[in-house]
Design goal:
single chain, alpha+beta, Beta Polymerase, domain 2, ten-stranded mixed sheet, Mab-21_HhH/H2TH-like, transmembrane, glycoprotein, signal, MAB21L/cGLR
Length: about 525
C-alpha cells in the first residue's frame, strides 16, 4: 500500500510540473508553429490521467478490502469480548457459590458448636442397664399392647359396619376394611398414651372412579415442593370413551342401551360437590373428605354407643376420625381412623392427613403413604435377624429419649417417623449378625450417630422412594422404587430457626440420655417401671 501511494505522488507531481497552464505568461513566445510539441504534451497528459485513474481505482479497492478486514476484526473483537465476559461472570458466580457454601457450612458448624455438639459414640451407655430397661419394659408393654390391639380391631370393625349402614350406597363414598399401621402394629410402641393408627380406604359410588396423577409421572404438573404427593381426579360417566352415556343423558324411550337392560335402573352422575371435589374442579378435596368422614363417624357412633360403657370424643376438629376413648377406670386409648384412597392395586395410599403432620399439603395435593411397605420391611428383617434381635429395642430407647426431651424443651421438627426411617436405613446397610442383643449399646450409638449426621447434612431420604436397597420380597411398586429420593428434612433447609431449634433439641437429648435411662432403671428391679412411665409420660 505504501508503494502505491508513492507512485501516485510521483504521477501527480509530474502532471503538475508538465501542465502548460503552469507556465508563466511571458513564455507565450513559443512559436505558433510548434504544434507537434503541444500534441506530444497533450498525449503525455492523457497517459498521466489514465495512470492516475488506474491508481485511484486500485486505492479504492484496497480501501474497501481494508474496511472489510477492519469490520471482521471488529466482529472478532466483540465475539472474544463476549466470551471473556461470560468466562469472567462464570468464575465470579462460582466464587460466590463457593463462598455461600462455606458460609452455610460455617453457620451449620456454628449451630452445632453453639448447642454443644456431642459425639454419640462417646456416650456412656451401660449394656446391662439398657438390656434390663428393654426387657422389663417391653415385656410389660407387649402384653398390654396385644390386648389393646385386639380391642381396637373389634371396635373398629363394629364402628365401620355402622358407618356403612348410615351411608347412602348410591351417593356416598364406599368404605372398605381398615389396615393397621404405625408403632402399635409394628410392635415397638410402649410410651403412653396408647395410640392406634388405622387407615380406611374409600372409593366413589358406581359408576364413578378415581384417576391418579403422581408427582413422579412424566406428564406431572405438580410443583417440586409437593414432592411425594399426587392429585386424585373423580371421573364421571361419559368422560372416557369406554363409558356408557345412558346414565348421564336422556336418550329417549325408543333408544336401547346394549350394556344395560330395560329393567336396569341407570345411575345418574353426581355433582362435584356430592363427589367431595374442590370448587369448580373434579379433583378430590381433602377438607371435603374429612368433613364427610367426621359426620359419618359421628352418626355411626350414635347408633352403637349404647353397646359400650366408655365415652368417645373427637380429639381434633381438623382431623377426621381422631378419637379418644375414655374408660370408666380413667384409662385412655387414642384411635386415629384415617380415610385414604388406595393407589390402584398396590398397598400405597393417598392419605387425607397424618396424625402428627408437620408439613401438611394443601388441596388438591394428597401425600402418598407407604406405611404398609414399611411394616412389611420390618417383618422381613424380623425373620432374618438373630433371635432376640435388638433393632426394635434400639428404636424404643431412642423414641423414649425423644419423648422425654420433648417434655423438657418442647416439640421440634424431629419426629418418631424420622427415627424409624433412620433405623430402616441402618437395617439395610448393616449385616444381620450385627443386630444381636449383645450389640444393643453399639447399635443405639449407631442410630443416634446416623440421625446426627442427617441433621448436619439437612438430608434424610425416605427409605422407600428411590431406594434400590429395599429387598424385592417387600414388593415395593416399581414406580416408587424408581422415583427420585425424597428428603424428609427439606423443611430444615429453608427454615434456619427451626433447624437451630431441632439441633439444640437433639443435642440436649444426647446430653441427657444417660441420666434419663439411669433415672428410670431403678424401678425395673421391683417391677415399677411401667407404672412410672405411665405417670411421667
Amino acid at each position: 500500500m505504501q508503494g502505491a501511494i508513492a507512485r501516485l505522488c510521483v504521477v501527480v507531481a509530474a502532471a503538475i510540473l508538465n501542465h502548460p497552464s503552469l507556465f508563466p505568461h511571458e513564455n507565450t513566445t513559443l512559436p505558433d508553429q510548434d504544434e507537434e510539441l503541444i500534441a506530444r504534451m497533450r498525449e503525455h497528459e492523457a497517459r498521466l490521467e489514465m495512470e492516475k485513474a488506474k491508481l485511484e481505482k486500485e486505492l479504492s479497492q484496497m480501501d474497501s478490502k481494508q474496511e472489510e478486514t477492519s469490520l471482521q476484526e471488529g466482529y472478532s473483537w466483540y465475539f472474544w469480548s463476549t466470551v471473556s465476559f461470560i468466562i469472567f461472570f462464570t468464575i465470579e458466580m462460582c466464587r460466590v457459590d463457593l463462598a455461600d457454601g462455606e458460609v452455610r457450612q460455617v453457620e451449620e458448624e456454628e449451630v452445632f458448636s453453639e448447642s454443644g455438639s456431642i459425639n454419640p459414640r462417646m456416650m456412656v451407655l451401660d449394656k446391662d442397664i439398657l438390656s434390663n430397661f428393654c426387657d422389663k419394659c417391653t415385656y410389660t408393654s407387649a402384653h398390654e399392647n396385644w390386648r389393646v390391639r385386639e380391642f381396637v380391631e373389634g371396635f373398629a370393625d363394629d364402628l365401620l359396619e355402622s358407618l356403612r349402614s348410615v351411608c347412602n350406597r348410591d351417593t356416598d363414598m364406599e368404605v372398605g376394611d381398615f389396615v393397621g399401621i404405625g408403632s402399635m402394629f409394628e410392635s415397638w410402641k410402649f410410651c403412653k398414651p396408647l395410640t392406634c393408627d388405622l387407615i380406611v380406604p374409600f372409593s366413589p359410588p358406581d359408576p364413578h372412579s378415581f384417576q391418579y396423577h403422581l408427582w413422579c409421572s412424566s406428564s406431572s404438573d405438580i410443583p417440586p415442593d409437593m414432592q411425594g404427593s399426587g392429585k386424585i381426579k373423580v371421573t364421571t360417566p361419559g368422560e372416557n370413551s369406554g363409558g356408557c352415556l345412558c346414565g348421564s343423558a336422556n336418550l329417549g324411550e325408543d333408544m336401547l342401551c346394549l350394556l344395560h337392560g330395560r329393567n336396569d335402573t341407570p345411575k345418574v352422575s353426581l355433582s362435584p360437590d356430592e363427589l367431595l371435589c374442590s370448587r369448580d374442579t373434579n379433583c378430590l378435596a381433602k377438607d371435603q373428605v374429612m368433613k364427610w368422614f367426621q359426620i359419618s363417624v359421628t352418626k355411626a357412633w350414635g347408633r352403637i354407643s349404647h353397646k359400650y360403657d366408655f365415652d368417645v370424643t373427637f380429639r381434633s376438629l381438623d382431623a377426621a376420625g381422631a378419637l379418644k376413648i375414655r374408660f370408666p377406670s380413667g384409662k385412655i386409648i387414642i384411635m386415629n381412623i384415617i380415610p385414604v384412597v388406595q393407589l390402584e392395586d398396590t398397598d400405597a395410599y393417598f392419605v387425607s392427613h397424618f396424625p402428627s403432620d408437620v408439613d401438611s399439603f394443601p388441596d388438591p395435593y394428597w401425600p402418598l403413604s407407604v406405611a404398609v411397605y414399611e411394616r412389611n420391611l420390618l417383618k422381613h428383617f424380623s425373620k432374618r435377624l438373630p433371635k432376640h434381635s435388638c433393632h426394635l429395642h434400639c428404636l424404643q430407647i431412642v423414641t423414649f429419649l425423644h419423648k422425654k426431651q420433648s417434655g423438657l424443651t418442647g416439640k421440634s421438627a424431629l419426629t418418631n417417623y424420622h427415627l424409624k426411617t433412620a433405623l430402616l436405613h441402618l437395617l439395610l446397610s448393616k449385616k444381620t449378625i450385627t443386630w444381636s442383643i449383645e450389640s444393643m449399646q453399639h447399635r443405639v450409638q449407631d442410630l443416634l450417630s446416623f440421625v446426627q449426621r442427617s441433621l448436619q447434612e439437612k438430608r434424610l431420604n425416605h427409605v422407600m422412594f428411590g431406594n434400590t436397597k429395599v429387598p424385592e420380597e417387600v414388593q415395593v411398586p416399581e414406580m416408587i422404587r424408581r422415583a427420585e429420593p425424597i428428603n424428609l428434612f427439606r423443611t430444615l433447609v429453608l427454615q434456619r430457626e427451626l433447624y437451630a431449634a431441632t439441633v439444640r433439641h437433639f443435642q440436649e437429648m444426647l446430653r441427657n440420655a444417660p441420666v434419663l435411662i439411669q433415672e428410670y432403671t431403678p424401678y425395673l428391679s421391683n417391677g415399677g417401671l411401667h407404672h412410672s412411665l405411665d405417670e411421667s409420660l
